[in-house]
Design brief:
Layout lengths: L22 E5 L5 E5 L5 E4 L2 H11 L7 E3 L9 H6 L2
Parallel strand pairs: 1-4
Antiparallel strand pairs: 1-2, 2-3
């Protein structure tokens, strides 16, 4: 299972990574944990960081390069995800 030690806190388009991370993990305005999929296919609201990390890891076949933590102080929301739901 992925954990925060293997996931870097970087932007989704970090120059240290050859491809952008697919998932961004961070908190919303209420402090809940969010996983945002850059492809807009999956994501969600999670009770804690461990659950968010577990979800993202399972979705990307445990590839740490596909998951990044949002920068400190960043506020995430699911507005973009909701707009892509059909």
């Amino acid at each position: 299972m992925a954990n925060a030690q293997h996931i870097q806190r970087r932007s989704a388009h970090s120059p240290i990574s050859p491809a952008p991370a697919r998932f961004i993990i961070g908190r919303d305005r209420r402090g809940s944990w969010i996983v945002q999929d850059q492809q807009g296919l999956v994501g969600g609201l999670f009770r804690n960081e461990a659950a968010a990390l577990h979800f993202a890891a399972e979705e990307c076949n445990h590839n740490p390069a596909d998951v990044c933590l949002a920068p400190e102080g960043a506020i995430l929301d699911l507005d973009g995800f909701a707009a892509n739901v059909h």
